[in-house]
Amino acid sequence: MMLDWLFASPAERRLLGGSPMRGPTPWVIAIMSFSCMIIAASGLALTNTATTLSRAIQARYSVELPGGGVSVDALLKAVQSAPGVSSADAVPEKEMRRTLARWLGPAAQSSELPVPALVNFDLRPGAKLAVVQRQVQRAAPDARIVAHSESVGPLLDSLHVLQWVAFGLVLLLSAAAAAAVVLAARGAIDTHRFTIEVMHGIGATDHQVTNLFQRRIAIDALAGSVAGAVAAVLVLLLLASGASFAGELAGGALLREPDLILLVLLPLALTILATIVARTAVLTALREAL
């Protein structure tokens, strides 16, 4: 059967000896697994945040009237009466001055500082922005409409770049883990070269020898992957309170159920990758030795 190599006899287990988490290989895999879990969780959280934010601002607009000139209530009524507007709310002058005070200090409360009138509104699907714009300009010719997607666009671009960087790092770490497995496999063959020669002498095939080494490396990789994943889960749980607060700001959970399933499968995928790479490396090394 395909998994016969995994269930070695007691005599075969004694040939290589050792126990899981002995030697550098499982510890290297554990570090890679820990790093992959943390970086993958960050990448998935960034993806969800960008998706939620993009969806929230897709039909969100603001009417800005520099220097006032028209009361906020009059501007709000003009926006609310426009066809296609599903909701609209005015930003009070006190709130705008409170926001400006973060940068200007007490000067933000000066009556000599003009504060623009600002109304935020949402468009229904299929509604035309030009119709709303004509309605607003009748009430305030100097008013202009700004799409939130234009203002937040650079932030979304940065989030997309960061998520691809995170996924790229996961691939690089997986490649580094595969390289570590190749080195471990070749080192194990050099260490047990005499044992391999004896096995060949009594009629063992390359595939039988490969199964023996593959099993050893697979167990090391599984132990290391699980250990690294457990450490990553503990770190993520410690950060759960902050992540929950950030999720409230983003309008939803940063990590959803499909993301958690992917994270759980990540150590298993790393183990499978290490097993396949180990088999290929051992077979290649044995054929080169002949």
Give the uncertain stretches in residue-range form. Answer: 1-7, 245-252
Beta strand %:
5-15%
Count of folded domains: 2
Global outline: elongated
The largest sheet has its strands arranged as: 2-3-1-4
Number of strands: 4
The total of helices stands at 10
> Largest sheet at a glance?
4 strands, antiparallel
Task: Give the helices and strands as they follow along the chain.
Answer: HHEHEHEHEHHHHH
Radius of gyration using CA atoms only = 31 Å
Specify the helix fraction band.
over 70%
Task: Kindly name the structural category.
Answer: alpha+beta
- Determine the N-to-C terminus distance: 27 Å
- Mean pLDDT, all residues: 78
Helices and strands, with pairings:
Elements: H1 10-16, H2 24-57, E1 60-65, H3 72-80, E2 85-90, H4 93-104, E3 117-123, H5 129-139, E4 144-147, H6 148-191, H7 193-201, H8 206-238, H9 240-250, H10 257-289
Antiparallel strand pairs: 1-3, 1-4, 2-3
Helix pairs in contact: 2-6, 2-8, 2-10, 3-5, 6-10, 8-10
